[in-house]
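Section 3.1: Structural characterization of target chains.
Under the original work plan, the team committed to producing a structural model for every single-chain target entering the pipeline before any wet-lab resources were allocated. The record below documents one such target. The sequence was received from the expression subgroup and is listed exactly as submitted; it comprises 300 residues.
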Amino acid sequence: MLRAGQTVIFPTETVYGLGGDATNPDAVAAIYAAKQRPADNPLIVHIWHPAQVDELAHDIPGYARQLIAEFFPGPFSLLLPKRPLIPDITTAGSSKVCLRMPSLELSREFLRLADRPVAAPSANLSGRPSPTRWQDCLEDMDGRVGAILKGPEAVFGLESTIVDASGPVPVLLRPGAVTLEMLRRVVPGIATDPNLVAETTPGMKYRHYAPKAKVSLVEPGEVLPWVPAQAGYIGLTAPAFAVEYQLRMENLEEYGQKLFSFFRECDRRGLSAIFAERVEPTGLGRAIMNRLRKAAGETS
């Protein structure tokens, strides 16, 4: 189906992806249409083997090859100058392409058999929480795609880390499970800009990850003067106020993995408000806070 230009949802270790032939403009257009995604929001291109990097990108810096050697396959994406094989619609007109090699064996076997690079944003309606289970994909995309390849629940639950490797110095554009601290062990000089708005970076330009309920961020132990009757809470510590539904996480890894599925469960329950506990923005906490701020509509 994918080789015939249709869209296919498939699992990865981060979230489920809505895939189409990255070299086929019509297939890529079908991805944007299925997601109701703005056409100026570029897509990540998924590969199954590191050799494909040189087929799809050029002028690859030495530090980028170090990052590839360390973090491919895995929850990690690199932004590089693209070759003409990738049409402009895939990159929203940008001269750069974002490449990722998933670590889930089922993902890579699917990509190998597809025998072409696969463009794939998260398999949800644009702006909604990303899907971490195939059942989540069915909620949003039933009737909008060709097929869903069923797989396991995503291990990480947060989209991949994105690093811009198109210039002399690498820049962290989107935090993920490959943390800034991990990146700096390989490339100490990696740069960050917390206020960066990357026009050429997938998943950075618009509000994302938002459930229907209003999301508010709270400090650990914070007492609120008023809480709606139909409210949910997620965090590492117990809330200091009563809520209808709560999810208490053991650690940051579990927080990241369960965040989006928690948002979706709150929507299923018809809750009007969600309170999410803030965490320290270091390590994996940086990625969790990035997603929470976007879900809450915070700009920084």
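The chain has a mean pLDDT of 94.
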